[in-house]
């Protein structure tokens, strides 16, 4: 069997060892679609897994990487043919099933999504789980009929992958977007994506007031904790906040008052086990709404060998926008 390169995480005492290894097709896991992986990407969850900041990986040995894109090499599924450009995100990749930091992958066909028409595998990974999650968050606002004329939408963690794509998608759909960031030096970048205003995240990190002055019609939150609690307390009656991240923390020091006094909706958005119809809807909508010129402006391309160092960088808040790794 032909050998291929893969990043493998192995158990080592109470920690883990992560190193590049050679695998072959006999090492691949169960599935009915085999993909020649050409591109992957870097998400906050990948940083958590590689640095073992949180126990993302369920079993060892494991190939990390919660995203992959490439070309179908073998398929026993009627839905996918050899030569199709496809992507997989979530579905346990990099956690309990070998993920995207390898030149080949074997996966279940129900996890596989066609690359949007006219897009490349590079484009698909420039979106990746972060951008796909941003689309789920925006769909959450749209599905609650939160129209653009209701007022501004706050996006927290704005310089990161979820925040960057969320700003572009919201602006594309006619919303006034306020970006909250801890890196005010990125103001021009965030405005280039479509933000009309950029604020320092410190404005949202003070003592939580359950019912604060109203500032937002809704929000997309990628950080959790105090910032999310303050966003909720500043959201207008019957506003909607979608939440998907824990960059600041997993806690939520909030009150029920925004929900029972103002009728605010807090909707969680999860990207791993998303029902297939919603997964396909999100990627179809991304193919229509995501401006590819803007997408490329927020994307940096690297050889996959950089992933271990960059996993530490994303945990330290040093990675802006989206990162694509060339594999095949």
Strand and helix map with partners:
Layout: E1 3-12, E2 15-24, E3 33-41, H1 44-51, E4 67-75, E5 85-89, E6 104-107, E7 113-114, H2 121-143, E8 153-155, H3 161-172, E9 177-181, H4 187-193, E10 197-200, E11 216-221, H5 225-233, E12 235-243, H6 257-260, E13 265-268, H7 276-289, H8 292-297, E14 299-303, H9 307-315, E15 322-326
Parallel strand pairs: 8-9, 8-11, 9-10, 11-12, 12-13, 14-15
Antiparallel strand pairs: 1-2, 3-4, 3-6, 3-15, 4-5, 5-7
Helix pairs in contact: 1-9, 2-3, 2-7
Q: What's this model, at a glance?
A:
With 328 residues, the chain is an alpha/beta fold. It contains 9 helices and 15 strands. The two termini are 17 Å apart.
Structure characterization notes:
With 328 residues, this protein is of the alpha/beta class. It has 2 domains: 3-115 and 298-326, Medium-chain alcohol dehydrogenases, catalytic domain (Quinone Oxidoreductase, Chain A, domain 1); 128-268, Rossmann fold. 28% of the residues lie in helices and 27% in strands. The chain has 9 helices and 15 strands. It has helices spanning 44-51, 121-143, 161-172, 187-193, 225-233, 257-260, 276-289, 292-297, 307-315; strands at 3-12, 15-24, 33-41, 67-75, 85-89, 104-107, 113-114, 153-155, 177-181, 197-200, 216-221, 235-243, 265-268, 299-303, 322-326. The strands form 3 sheets. Strands 3, 4, 5, 6, 7, 14 and 15 form a 7-stranded mixed beta sheet that branches. The protein has a 6-stranded parallel beta sheet with strand order 10-9-8-11-12-13, sandwiched between helices. Helix 1 (44-51) crosses helix 9. The two termini are 17 Å apart.
């Amino acid at each position: 069997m032909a050998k291929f390169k893969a990043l493998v995480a192995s158990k080592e005492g109470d920690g883990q060892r992560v190193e590049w290894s050679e695998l072959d097709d006999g090492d691949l896991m169960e599935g009915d679609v085999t993909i020649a992986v050409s591109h992957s990407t870097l998400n906050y969850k990948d940083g958590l897994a590689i640095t073992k900041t949180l126990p993302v990986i369920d079993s060892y040995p494991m190939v990390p990487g919660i995203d992959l894109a490439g070309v179908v090499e073998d398929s026993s599924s009627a839905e996918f043919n050899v030569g199709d450009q496809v992507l997989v995100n979530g579905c346990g990749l990099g956690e309990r099933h070998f993920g995207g930091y390898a030149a080949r992958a074997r996966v279940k066909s129900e996890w596989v999504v066609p690359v949007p028409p006219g897009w490349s595998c590079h484009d698909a990974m420039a979106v990746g789980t972060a951008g796909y999650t941003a689309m789920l968050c925006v769909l959450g606002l749209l599905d609650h009929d939160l129209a653009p004329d209701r007022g501004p939408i706050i996006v927290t963690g704005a310089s990161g992958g979820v925040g960057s794509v969320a700003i572009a998608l919201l602006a594309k759909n006619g919303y006034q977007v306020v970006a909250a960031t801890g890196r005010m030096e990125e103001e021009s970048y965030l405005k280039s994506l479509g933000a009309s205003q950029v604020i320092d995240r410190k404005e949202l990190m003070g003592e939580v007031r359950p019912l604060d002055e109203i500032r937002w019609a809704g929000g997309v939150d990628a950080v959790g904790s105090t910032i999310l609690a303050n966003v909720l307390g500043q959201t207008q009656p019957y506003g909607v906040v979608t939440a998907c991240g824990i960059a600041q923390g997993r806690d939520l020091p909030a009150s029920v008052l925004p929900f029972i006094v103002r009728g605010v909706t807090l909707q969680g958005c999860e990207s791993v086990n998303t029902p297939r119809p919603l997964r396909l809807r999100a990627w179809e909508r991304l193919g229509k709404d995501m401006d590819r010129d803007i997408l490329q402006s927020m994307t940096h391309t690297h050889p996959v060998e950089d992933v271990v160092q960059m996993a530490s960088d994303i945990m330290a808040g040093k990675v802006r926008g989206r990162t694509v790794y060339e594999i095949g």
